[in-house]
């Protein structure tokens, strides 16, 4: 018997030891007993972090949608796979059974084929959280097309960059989306993006808001008539274990987003196994992750992980504040949610509204609470524990990344004693290491350092689309023979990990990773701007907010600063998206720089955080005089 379901702490330690002493035997047992293979592997694992190259289950053949859908048809055909909860609570929820999901995915897959999509082609999905989003993801996987989901809050220019980078042949979108009381013209954004993309052959448009949209003849097609005509069954494409399943873009420290490539077998095994254990999912449970499928959390823990376990997973189209701040709790009560997984920024926003919204609803179905995306502060942790979980539902603080594909450091619900603000212990098979600045591993407890992973795990990203060198430079060059996460962490006296945050140029705002470079690029395009630097500063709800230091080409009072601020934020909205707008913009005479010309963000960060007691030695700067001026005018 393999150890597919871990139930208590001793079992965790025992299975963990087995998974690190003999990873190949361990993962082979898990893969063998719990998944459907068309052909078994020849080799469980081969790896070399210096290239870097990692292969899991090489030689195996499978289709992930057979694991997520087909194999449940006999045992759970009439069980609800997906509950769609619309933006407007007056619109009724939709329950999609495994049988219906099979039918809808197959029809969609046949439409893709009819429009010329083949194995290995890239398909960009730019959709709101409606069933077509999950269905189109699975339809791509069904025929071996590589999906690239772009979060439907990104701007036309961000969308175009992603379409071009992976040379997508098709975009799947909708006539628009609902967001609280507003609607968003998604099709218009796609049209604008496509002005400048020449690889797109067709655009499929789902109807959601009944908007009047432009349909370009020969390129744009309404989805529903095509689905209605399509055949309801579609043989899955047989994929190799290491064939790419999807590309998902994440911000980096340079302007260009990184298209992280995830492959098929290892990703499937690891997301399914973590889902089952971290959340302790049981057959009749209803699970809800509030993330958007545009992010990795949605890929792994709304779609693939839950469906692979035959779970019932909720897709919520709306926002926590519409029609009021009780919406999440109304949904928990309505669908009797057992596992609830959200982000610290949402918890803080809800906590600010007080407990009266909670008190109106019966939350007694909740068994497990989860959090992801950024460090959770102690206050938010306790609010979640006291008021949502009533101290009875363990909080799984799950640390992981787009790059890791699945949850890496986390409590296992009911097994691992939780500790506020701690992600606690490495998941089965995960071997973390804390490193010092000289590249040496720091052993022992009560230490802190840079968080690395020493050994491959099945769901790690294999490369950056079209740029393997960048993959190597970003993740495998800082520390020899180790994957570097970009995060700092500390290990307490019993070996629990607490993630302290990014140590690079990525700032997490409301759970969204934002690289400073693309935002600075957008600002610098303003004709009046000479230079700029972005840093994060603490914000009660968003976790971090953005602070921009901007140097103008011409100083003096000739320009109206308030107008400039608006124009700068407008440029950012167009090029990156509204989530990257700056909360504060300070115009400065210059930016502090090292003698080699590097902007000293560390100093700027401290000033923005109003923590200027220990700025360090500024006398070695190229322009030390600039610092006092910036401090005098800090916002
Ligand atoms: C941060 C999200 C503290 C971290 C799945 C990581 C966290 C980045 C946690 C990845 C957590 C994620 N505690 N920090 N529980 N979870 N992070 O790629 O800095 O959107 O590197 O993946 O979010 O964000 P990404």
TrEMBL record:
GO terms for biological process: acetyl-CoA biosynthetic process from acetate. Residues 71-462 form the AMP-dependent synthetase/ligase domain. Belongs to the ATP-dependent AMP-binding enzyme family. One of its GO terms (molecular function) is ATP binding. NCBIfam families: Ac_CoA_lig_AcsA (TIGR02188), PRK00174.1 (NF001208). Gene3D superfamilies: 3.30.300.30, N-terminal domain of ligase-like (3.40.50.12780). It comes from Neotamlana sargassicola. The gene is acs. InterPro entries: Ac_CoA_lig (IPR011904), ACAS_N (IPR032387), AMP-bd_C (IPR025110), AMP-bd_C_sf (IPR045851), AMP-binding_CS (IPR020845), AMP-dep_synth/lig_dom (IPR000873), ANL_N_sf (IPR042099). Pfam families: ACAS_N (PF16177), AMP-binding (PF00501), AMP-binding_C (PF13193). Residues 12-68 form the Acetyl-coenzyme A synthetase N-terminal domain. SUPFAM superfamilies: Acetyl-CoA synthetase-like. Its EC number is 6.2.1.1. Residues 519-598 form the AMP-binding enzyme C-terminal domain. It comes from the Bacteria. This is Acetate--CoA ligase. Keywords: Acetylation, ATP-binding, Ligase, Nucleotide-binding.
